[in-house]
Amino acid sequence: MYLFIINSRSGGGAGLRTWHTIQALLEKRAAAYEALLTHSADSAESQVLQTLARREDWRAAIVVGGDGTIHSVLGALRRSGVPLGVIPAGSGNDTARGFSIPLAPEAALDHALQERCIEADLLNAAGVLTLTAVASGFDAQVAVNVNASRYKRLCNAIGAGRLAYIIGVLHTLMTFKPCRVSVTCDGKEQAYAQAWLVSVCNLPSYGGGLLICPQAESGDGLLDVCVVHGVSRGQLLRLFPTVVKGRHTKLPYVTMLRGRSVAVHFAQPRHAIGDGEALGTAPLAVACEPGALRVLSPLAAASAVAAGAAGSCLTGG
Ligand SMILES: Nc1ncnc2c1ncn2[C@@H]1O[C@H](COP(=O)(O)OP(=O)(O)OP(=O)(O)O)[C@@H](O)[C@H]1O
């Protein structure tokens, strides 16, 4: 039995449209499923836990939504051990990208129904679980601004979710002020003046495919950290095109770190986000939980071939 978890308003309504497509495909494939329409991020975890508790033969919980919807059910899936599947229907869809899940609904469904899964790490920030990245500073302010904006809805309506983030970057660049930050990675503290952002990543991209930590691997038990500091507004603007291909990491004002735990303390309150959802403005302490989540991913097939195994649930990366 598959549980489909649907956020009808993800991707500006793409969630519901995608679900209708998937429903028709499931009937054709005669797959046994239950559908759960979740109403809010706050109630999703308990809705999912209650539904999962009703039977024991769950093969996977497949989210029809974006990164925020996936974020809302991570606690329930970690507790239950039921693998996560994804039918991308958000604006950014960076979880899908990170696990090589096709963005087209039918192809994503076909992969999910193959039931090949990998073990992925989770990020734990004061008990809040995140799968893609915990970002703080400029990027988080962009997300806060984009989520509150009208242009996000307009861009989603014309199928240009990524454009909303580009507009958000330009909009935030006008007002954001960098400040000092202290970053402690596996107990080693480093301070950076004029810091714009600190991103703690489990997957390579966020913001709709921006490769902020291109080397990040979901199953390596490590957090990848990107700190951007000591740079002017003009330089920061010129940095963005390089992030699309992940070429920023060698620039002199970009520092990349890697470790099992990371604490981030800005001198002034700065927003943080996990999977694009607001985490507040308090200093961050992020720990890696190795292999805490099973994810249905085409990467499992590649890992299985490399390992010479059948690949039911492998350690990812
Ligand atoms: N399980 C849920 N059910 C209903 N609403 C949710 C749920 N989880 C999160 N939300 C709310 O719905 C909003 C949109 O969902 P989601 O983040 O999945 O889509 P998106 O923002 O369009 O895409 P992405 O996160 O991939 O950029 C979230 O920002 C959050 O406010």
Provide the fold topology.
Blueprint lengths: L1 E5 L7 H16 L3 E5 L3 H13 L6 E6 L1 H14 L3 E5 L5 H5 L6 H9 L3 E9 L2 E3 L2 E5 H10 L2 H8 L3 H13 L5 E7 L2 E14 L21 E7 L3 H12 L9 E6 L1 E6 L5 E3 L2 E4 L3 E13 L2 H9 L5 E3 L2
Helix pairs in contact: 2-3, 6-8, 7-8
Supply the key terms.
317 residues; alpha+beta; Rossmann fold; Tumour Suppressor Smad4; twelve-stranded mixed β-sheet; four-stranded parallel β-sheet; 10 helices; 34% helix; 32% strand; globular; binds adenosine-5'-triphosphate; transferase; lipid metabolism; kinase; ATP-binding; NAD/diacylglycerol_kinase_sf
Characterization of the model:
The chain has helices at 14-29, 41-53, 67-80, 94-98, 105-113, 138-147, 150-157, 161-173, 233-244, 299-307, and strands at residues 2-6, 33-37, 60-65, 84-88, 117-125, 128-130, 133-137, 179-185, 188-201, 223-229, 254-259, 261-266, 272-274, 277-280, 284-296, 313-315. The model has no long low-confidence stretch (mean pLDDT 93). Helix 2 (41-53) runs parallel beside helix 3 (67-80), helix 6 (138-147) crosses helix 8 (161-173) and helix 7 runs antiparallel to helix 8. It is an alpha+beta fold. The chain contains ten helices and 16 strands. It binds adenosine-5'-triphosphate. GO terms for molecular function: kinase activity. This is Diacylglycerol/lipid kinase family protein.
